[in-house]
Amino acid sequence: xxxxxxxxxxxxxxxxxxxxxxxxxxxxxxxxxxxxxxxxxxxxxxxxxxxxxxxxxxxxxxxxxxxxxxxxxxxxxxxxxxxxxxxxxxxxxxxxx
Length: 97
Prior knowledge:
Elements: H1 2-20, H2 29-39, H3 44-57, H4 64-78, H5 81-96
């Protein structure tokens, strides 16, 4: 039941963000490279951790919400529900502002 709840929350967050999304462009090359490296990580647990590290390194990034969504999806794929919840809480905190 809990996995279903997290899946529904993730789907709602992704749908909401997609509806509100504008084209986001990372202008700093180093930031772009860091995001793409995290995005291309083949291991879900490593990808989640890389996305969290990206958000910590670039807290003002235009793709920080995207990075947290990617982290949630990666952690869910890895079966790490605690990490999914933590990333979700961070995403909720960003979206409140």
